[in-house]
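Title: Comparing notes on inverse folding

I've been comparing how different people in this forum approach sequence design from structure. To keep things fair, I'm posting one structure and asking everyone to reply with a full sequence. Here's the target:
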């Protein structure tokens, strides 16, 4: 039997995305009605293909969380000059920089090699290079923020020394750099991180350096997972910071709402991203 609700939601998502993409130039210049400033620096890593998602994600952060010190889009190298200009028109706090401008000079060779081979290697290189001066957030472009996102202001103002991670709803790791099944506990999703300090990446990078085969898609997330736990990272509340695909095959978005801070619309539920986008 055909799941009409599921396929209808996917069709609506595609249509909504096409309409949003067609109006990007106007949407990017549309004023965001907020003056609340938040003591946070935000970084995101994305590409030309994901420009509509990136615009929507930035605007949702500004609308529901506030105006950060900077919102830096790290380009993988594919953004055109016109797309960079469009992103910067969203708000004066937004800037676009090429990955090579961000990269630290002492990046481990195994990470540089991974970055040359795979887009997720570029993301790992970006994460390791993000400067952390005060509360610093990394967010993927397929994350939407909601009114509960003001909770991030409380995190920024708190005295906690721990960094925070987005709990994953499944164990998605590169088994080749997991040495003990117990290391899979409390899976970390690499799409959203609240840095309170620079992380020590050496524990996980040593394993990457020993990997004889070519790193894969989930190698980056596994490095983040191991690093967050090695640095005593704390999980964000999964009821407020949502990564869940249980509503994949029904029409409505079961988790979006005014009480959550964000939802990471991973591939299985990406179409629902476009059912919740505002201007």
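Reply #1:
Here's my take.
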């Amino acid at each position: 039997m055909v799941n009409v609700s599921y396929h209808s939601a996917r069709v609506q998502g595609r249509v909504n995305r096409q309409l949003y993409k067609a109006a990007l130039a106007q949407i990017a210049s549309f004023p965001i009605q907020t003056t609340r400033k938040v003591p946070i620096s935000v970084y995101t890593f994305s590409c030309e293909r994901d420009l509509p998602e990136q615009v929507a994600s930035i605007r949702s952060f500004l609308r529901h969380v506030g105006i950060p010190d900077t919102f830096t889009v790290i380009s993988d190298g594919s953004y055109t000059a016109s797309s960079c200009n469009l992103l910067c028109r969203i708000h004066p706090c937004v800037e676009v920089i090429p990955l090579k401008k961000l990269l630290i000079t002492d990046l481990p060779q195994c990470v540089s090699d991974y970055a040359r081979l795979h887009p997720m290697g570029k993301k790992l290189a970006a994460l390791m290079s993000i400067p952390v001066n005060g509360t610093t957030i990394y967010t993927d472009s397929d994350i939407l923020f909601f009114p509960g996102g003001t909770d991030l202001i409380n995190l920024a103002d708190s005295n906690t020394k721990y960094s925070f991670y987005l709990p994953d709803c499944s164990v998605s790791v590169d088994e080749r750099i997991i040495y003990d099944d117990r290391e899979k506990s409390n899976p970390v999703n690499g799409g959203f991180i609240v840095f309170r300090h620079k992380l020590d990446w050496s524990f996980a990078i040593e394993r990457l350096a020993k990997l004889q085969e070519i790193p894969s898609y989930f190698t980056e997330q596994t490095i983040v997972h191991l690093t967050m736990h090695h640095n005593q990272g704390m999980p964000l509340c999964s009821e407020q910071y949502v990564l869940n695909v249980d509503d994949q095959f029904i029409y409505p978005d079961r988790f979006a709402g005014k009480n959550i801070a964000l939802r990471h619309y991973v591939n299985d539920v990406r179409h629902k991203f476009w059912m919740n986008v505002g201007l």
